Structure formats: structure tokens, C-alpha cells
Amino acid sequence: MSNQKLIRVAIDAMGGDYGPEPIIEGCIQAMDERLFQPILVGDREEILSYIPQYYLEKVEIIEASDVIDMHDQATNALKRKESSIYKAVELVRDGKADAVVSAGHSGATMTLATLRIGRLPHINKPALATLMPNTESKKTLVLDVGAVVDCKPLNLYQFGVMGAAYAQEVMGIESPRVGLLSNGEEDSKGNDLTKEAFGMMKELPGFVGNVEGRDIFNATVDVVVTDGFTGNVLLKTGEGVAMTILSLMKQQIRKSLPAKIGALLMKKKVFDNLKKQIDYAEYGGAPLLGINGCAIVSHGSSNSKAIKNAIFQAINYMRSDVNKKIEERLIHNEINS
Question: Where are the domains of the chain?
Fold first, then answer.
């Protein structure tokens, strides 16, 4: 580790739903576990009020007087040059940070990361990737979940390349299986977009063909490719289903004494493990794949644990060669097509 470069992570300290406190707390928790250089961006006085004396010399603070609200238009982010997310992204663009983490306005984060940091040379559009739980207690990578609402077949093909590279380089899956989300497994199923994308993706190593929504959760594939509109609906539906199931289980347990006793006996192992599987805080955030750097987009309601894990994601991303591998795969596929 001694000869490894210290990863510099720019953190939007102001963007989350609950202000800077959980963000800074998560940053401190990350510092206690991993060696990196945190750069907190936001209102200096407010940031300082949450940092214990011991950590003051370990963090860098960049003043930002503006905060982009969740209700603001993402397109306005380019004009808000004093905002915390704009300044955090600029640190990556200027080479003063290696990665950016934000729990603020996701649209603004993606817009700024794409336009200010820029895309990888052979990438047409970036994709937001997220991890979803499956029945083997592992994770399925799904992309896109919100960056590109209206996709073209080329975008889906490139999402497949990026997803496979991420699964291999960051998730440690030696030969990732890639599926294209459709309304049936047969090659002939799908709409015009997926049918054309299917023809392009057939040449990708590890491509298994069309998959259905249930295949995300039954571990038959490692990477699932879809457009940003469908992916975002899928993500939010999945979150809603998980919360509903937990709520229904609690209701049923309260109705029966034997169930209450059983639940108490199971609580530590079963319920805690289940909660851990579906808790977004365990993943921290979604990487925006395809940009010439690293941006981790976290949930607006992120707690300190989620921020800590988002920072770990950024460090792991930068320690990997995922961006280089994406470019190599795209160039190789172009040569052989």
C-alpha cells in the first residue's frame, strides 16, 4: 500500500437531505477505516462545526456559498458555479481530486460530471449503475438506472461493455454474465430498441441474451442492461417492494404470539441479514460509468454509513483499472466488428 497513490475524494458536504452532519460523520467513519484524502466542499463554518479537533488537520475544506436544492432544475447546475456540487466536480476536472461523492441533486451531479469532467473517448452516454440483491446473497449490477432516459441501441451496447468491465474490475467477477432486460427470454422478444441492441450485444463476451425482471434477483446473470427510464422505475419499484415486505412481515408478527417469539429468536440472524441485503446504505451510492474520472451518486437521504460506503466505492473505483478496461474493450470490439 505504501507505494500506492493517496486517493483524493471531493465530497459535496451540503447536498444531502439532512445537511452536512451525516455527510461529515460518514467521512470521519471512512477516515477511521481507510487511508485517503478527503476534500469537503461547502460552507466552511458549518463544516467546521461538525468536525472534531482530532480530524481538522486530516481534511481539506473548499468554500462554496451555494447549494443546489432537490427542486432546482438540473440544467441550471452549469450556471451555479459557487454551488458545492459544481466546485466538487471542478476539483476532479482540474486534477485536484480523483473522485467526487455527492448525496445532493442527482440530476445536477450527473449533468456536471458528464459535461465538466467529460466522457471517456469512445463513450456516447454515461450510465448510472446500481447493485441489487439476489438469491445467492451476492449482487446484480443494473444499468442504466436514471442517467439516460431516452436510449439508442448503441447506448445499451456500451452499457453492456461498461457493466461487464465494472463487474470484473471492481466486483471481482472473473467472467461476468450480461443480460439485456426484456419482456421475455426469447431472442425475438422486446421492443424496437432492445431488438436492435440485442443484435449489437451478441458479440459481447459473456452476453447471455434477453433476461426478465425476475432474473435480476435470481442470480442467473451478473449484469443487467436497460434504458434509464425503465431502470429508474425498476429501482424505485424494488425499493418499494422491499419496504412493503418488511412492513407486512412486522404486521403479521404483531398479530401472533408464537410469531413474536419466533421473530425474537430469528431477529439477529435472519432479519438483520435481510435488512443488510436490501439496505442502500450498504452500497453507498451508484457509480456514473463512462465519465473520464469517478463520480458516485448517493441517495439524498443517505446516513453516515451510506456516505462512508460511497467513499469506499470511490476509492475502490480509482484503485481499479475500470475506465482503462472500458476503453480497451470498446476499441477491441470496434477492431473486430
Answer: 1-123+290-320
Q: Return the C-alpha cell found at 111.
A: 449533468
H-helix or E-strand containing 145? none
Strands (E), the chain: 8-12, 37-42, 60-63, 99-102, 127-133, 139-143, 178-181, 207-211, 223-225, 286-289, 295-297
Cα separation, 118 vs 295, in Å, equals 11
Task: Tell me the DSSP string of 97-129.
Answer: -SEEEE-S-HHHHHHHIIIII-B-TT-SS-EEE
From 3.40.50.10140, 3.30.300.20, 3.40.718.10, 3.40.50.300, which CATH number describes the 1-123+290-320 domain?
Answer: 3.40.718.10
Q: With a cut of 80, say whether residue 120 has pLDDT above it.
A: yes
User: Are 107 and 297 within 8 A, CB to CB?
Assistant: no
Cα(143)–Cα(128) distance, integer angstroms: 6
pLDDT tens profile 172-200: 999 999 999 998 888 888 899 999 999 99
Total length of the chain: 337
pLDDT in tens, 24-83: 999 999 999 999 999 999 999 999 999 999 999 999 999 999 999 888 888 888 899 999
Round to whole Å and give the CA distance between 255 and 250.
9
| 148 three-class SS | coil
Could you list the beta-strand ranges (E) of 134-292: 139-143, 178-181, 207-211, 223-225, 286-289
**Do residues 50 and 21 lie in contact, with contact meaning Cβ atoms separated by under 8 Å?**
yes
Nearest-5° angle of CA 145, CA 147, CA 149?
Answer: 85
Pairing of strands 139-143, 99-102: unpaired
Radius of gyration over every alpha carbon of the chain, rounded to an integer in angstroms: 21
